[in-house]
Amino acid sequence: MLAIAGGKGGCGKTTTAVGLARALATLGRRPLVVDADIDMPDIHHRTAVDREPGITAAVECGDPRAVAQRSGRFREVDILPCGGADTATAASLFEHLGNSDDGQPDASVLLDCPAGASPDVAAPLRAADRTVLVSTPREQSLRDAAKTAAMARELDAPPVGVVLVRSDGTADPSELFDCELIVHVPELPEPPLETQEFVVRHRKCAKSIIERNI
Fold it and tell me: Which residues lie closer than 8 Å to 21 by C-beta, 6 or more apart?
């Protein structure tokens, strides 16, 4: 299970989560994106699904994929909105998703985390196997993402890759994050999710993650 995390809000985490999910679908996976941002959930707006049923219904049902909704914009992706879930209920769901039947990591489940390295991001990071960090190439954004990376390592979800959005490709944060996989996504016209360049860059990232047996 992958946590999609980064620095402060607006760095592109949700867009990256959906982009990676779409890429995983082209690689034969059945992606599920869970909105793990309890205070500021918005993935239901981005992907054209209803706010409910969400995390609470998934916990009650016991089968998150049975509750998840097919995205109205991207039919190859399943979305589980946050809904009105509280922190404890969400943490229970993350733990359930992290306990795969075969004990192997499942990269087809992505947790769209809250911004930064706040206490709210601890629950999804603790449940995840690895973290994909999202940042812009700006110094402040990189520093914020580095704090999240340190938190992810402490919670046993070390970074498997970094996605730099609005990047011209000149920045090299591999040493800062101690991570070899750096994917640069250039400034793209709106909506970026529907551009071919966006698809190509996220497919590269998804393939590299799968090759690392995540």
Answer: 31, 32, 33, 74, 76, 77, 110
